[in-house]
TrEMBL record:
Keywords of this entry: Disulfide bond, Endonuclease, Glycoprotein, Hydrolase, Metal-binding, Nuclease
Lineage: Eukaryota, Fungi, Dikarya, Basidiomycota, Agaricomycotina
Ranges annotated as spanning the membrane: none
Homology family: Belongs to the nuclease type I family.
Record protein name field: Uncharacterized protein
Highest rank taxon of the organism: Eukaryota
Molecular function (Gene Ontology), one example: metal ion binding
Organism: Cerrena zonata
GO BP terms: DNA catabolic process
InterPro entries assigned to the protein according to its UniProt record, in alphabetical order: PLipase_C/P1_nuclease_dom_sf, S1/P1nuclease
Length: 177
């Protein structure tokens, strides 16, 4: 049996009531990315709620984005779409992609503000959801699982929507979302 290499990633420290509460023994703890929380929760969710197939899960996500619980959120998902412009410049994703594709290698690159905004959105769930696992129960069942699934669905829908907008602009010249 071939062992997979472990990838070490820093875990953030959560702030609550002005006091640092650490969910690990050191400021930076590591874990293996193939542990159950990385794939097991999504796999169990797809099996339990989406017929066990990626195609059904994707179709269900598209339905939620177009007509379901995510529909009212989608306009804010593209409010920050540039990977090279500061957040303060409010532009359309069409403009961002056009500028990105026409930029020359010698052009100066401005701060990568939107990727930082996107990372902050995801990191907002660290203390409230990700690091709330304290009971020792199976990650793929119970309270932790039930609280994590809506966050996972939201994050997959949001990032899929952003990727779709970028691809639509690249291939069709407009987001068409």
């Amino acid at each position: 049996m071939t062992s997979r290499p472990s990838v070490q990633v820093p875990r953030p420290i959560c702030m609550r009531h002005g006091v640092r509460q650490m969910f690990s023994k050191a400021l930076v703890d590591t874990y293996i990315l193939d542990n159950p929380s990385d794939t097991g929760i999504l796999t169990a969710h797809v099996k339990a709620s989406h017929g066990g197939t990626a195609q059904t899960f994707a179709a269900d996500m598209v339905k939620e984005i177009k007509t379901g619980s995510f529909k009212s959120l989608t306009s804010s998902w593209l409010s920050c779409s540039s990977t090279t412009q500061p957040v303060a410049s409010k532009r359309s994703i069409d403009d961002d992609v056009t500028d990105f594709l026409s930029a020359r290698a010698t052009d100066a690159i401005t701060p990568l503000a939107c990727p930082l905004v996107w990372a902050s959105e995801s990191n907002a769930f660290d203390c409230s959801t990700v690091f709330s696992f304290t009971t020792g129960e199976d990650l793929c069942t119970g309270t932790y699982f039930n609280n994590a699934v809506p966050v996972i669905d939201l994050q997959i829908a949001k990032q899929g929507f952003r990727l779709a907008a970028w691809l639509n602009v690249l291939f069709d010249g407009a987001t068409e979302l």
